[in-house]
Design a protein that fits this description.
Number of strands: 19
CATH superfamily of the largest domain: Pseudouridine synthase I, catalytic domain, N-terminal subdomain
Number of domains: 3
Strand content: 25-35%
Shape: elongated
CATH architecture of the largest domain: 2-Layer Sandwich
Number of helices: 8
Helix content: 10-25%
CATH class of the largest domain: Alpha Beta
Distance between the termini: 26 Å
Largest sheet: 9 strands, mixed
CATH topology of the largest domain: Alpha-Beta Plaits
Structural class: alpha+beta
């Protein structure tokens, strides 16, 4: 982004840097961009926070969308000062028994407990897996990317390995492919097939719906009980060489892939 129209010279880095000795460049950017860069949400969600009067700039509530602020301004959300921070991208193979709602006071264990103090930045799960579901989970403080990976408009692919209490009929697989009504909305799988030709209690399902607990609800609607649910693919990421309960930082290639949507 070129901010030369404000200063008559090329823009500096987002956080400002030394120029001409000890003087710092005072860059002006959109308020929603600064909020997203702090890692708490996407730009779209930041607009909602602004409109709802939850953001203050230098002690004054700002509700006008498109407002520009200085990187030196005191911007706060619920009285917490927002700061830009190093972007962190984590891939986890989530185990059973951990919740992905990081601020649940009733949860015994959250996925952040698995990371502990190894990552000083405050990261958040991208989307949700319920307590009993295992598999691929991404965590980040990049609110902008998280918004793109979870918004239905971008149709990020998810693949689940489903273990059921009884064999699934071919007719029911066809019903899932054709669309299942869940609370007035027709949810259609992009692909569904037996995961093991010799064991029809195991099904692989590819889906991009963002509905809560959507895979469990699809099979429950057809009279099946899920014994185990494992997400094996999310937006180009897999759990290959990542044992259950372990995590790692994404490499540069994976981060570029996610940001460009190349998968």
């Amino acid at each position: 982004m070129n901010n030369s129209r404000y200063r008559g010279r090329p823009a500096k880095r987002f956080k400002g840097e030394e120029t001409g000795g000890s003087r710092k460049e005072n860059v002006h950017i959109r308020l929603n961009r600064l909020i997203a860069a702090s890692g708490i949400c996407s730009r779209r969600e930041a607009d909602v926070l602004i409109r709802d009067g939850l953001i203050t700039v230098n002690g004054k509530t700002v509700t006008e969308l498109g407002t520009k602020v200085s990187t030196e301004d005191d911007v706060r959300y619920r009285n917490r000062k927002l700061r830009t921070e190093k972007k962190v991208y984590i891939l986890m193979n989530k185990p059973k028994g951990y919740v992905t709602t990081v601020e649940d006071p009733h949860a015994d264990r959250t996925v952040l407990d698995l990371i502990g103090d190894a990552c000083p930045e405050r990261v958040y799960p991208v989307g949700r897996l319920d307590k009993s579901t295992t598999g691929v989970l991404m965590l980040t403080n990049d609110g902008e990317l998280a918004g793109k990976l979870t918004h239905p408009r971008y149709k990020r692919k998810k693949i689940y390995h489903v273990f059921l209490d009884k064999p699934v009929t071919r007719n029911d697989l066809q019903k899932i492919s054709g669309g299942i009504d869940l609370d007035g909305e027709t949810v259609t799988a992009d692909s569904v097939e037996y995961a093991d030709p010799e064991d029809r209690t195991q099904v692989g399902i590819e889906i991009h719906s963002g509905q809560n607990r959507v895979v469990r609800r699809i099979f429950e609607k057809l009279g099946y009980k899920i014994k185990k649910l494992d997400r094996v693919y999310f937006a180009g990421l897999t759990k290959k060489n990542l044992p259950r309960g372990k995590w790692r930082f994404l490499n540069d290639k994976e981060i570029i892939m996610l940001k460009r949507g190349i998968f």
